[in-house]
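note to self — DONT lose this again. spent like an hour looking for the file last time. sequence + predicted structure for the chain T wanted, 201 res
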Amino acid sequence: MQRLGYILGICGSPRKQATDYVLGETLNMLENEGFKTEFFTVRGKNISPCRHCDYCLKNKECVLKDDMFKLYPLFRDAEGIVMATPIYNGGVSAQIKAVMDRTRALGAENYDHMRYKVGMAIAVGGDRIGGQELAIQQLITFFILNGAIPISGGALGANLGATFWSKDTFEGVKEDEEGFRSLRKTVKRFSKFLKNYEIKE
């Protein structure tokens, strides 16, 4: 069965800064590879943390009626998912963590809601070593726990995914040549995998 759909890019930054820019560049690269893309940002959105109240287990939908309901259908229909987070206190942003936790409602509706989708992670930090790999590991863990297949850029610069050093400035991330090298490597493998990936059922 050939996979159909688009690439969903989720920006976990509440600001229109470095992470927003990097994700936009990523989706442009993927569009140049022939994919359709959808950009979703948490900026300006009301996405509450998961209460773990189990309402979704009984009712097959989340009790919190907020902007997460704009994201749920995008998750359902996406072929691939690119998640980009800024580094806050050495890890993922609270906003991207809320998104991950709130997909519990999708799992309650359909246990296999992310199975066989393909995932890619990006982390943007103000320091060179500020928690980028830890954040990417958390995003990869999210993919694995939900049945998605995480793709990295491979050895020599993009072992887990794409990492950036912004120096806490917008210009800093634009000038991060090593970061964009890791991004190109990761996008290349992500794109190649999706183009050759076929579910056997």
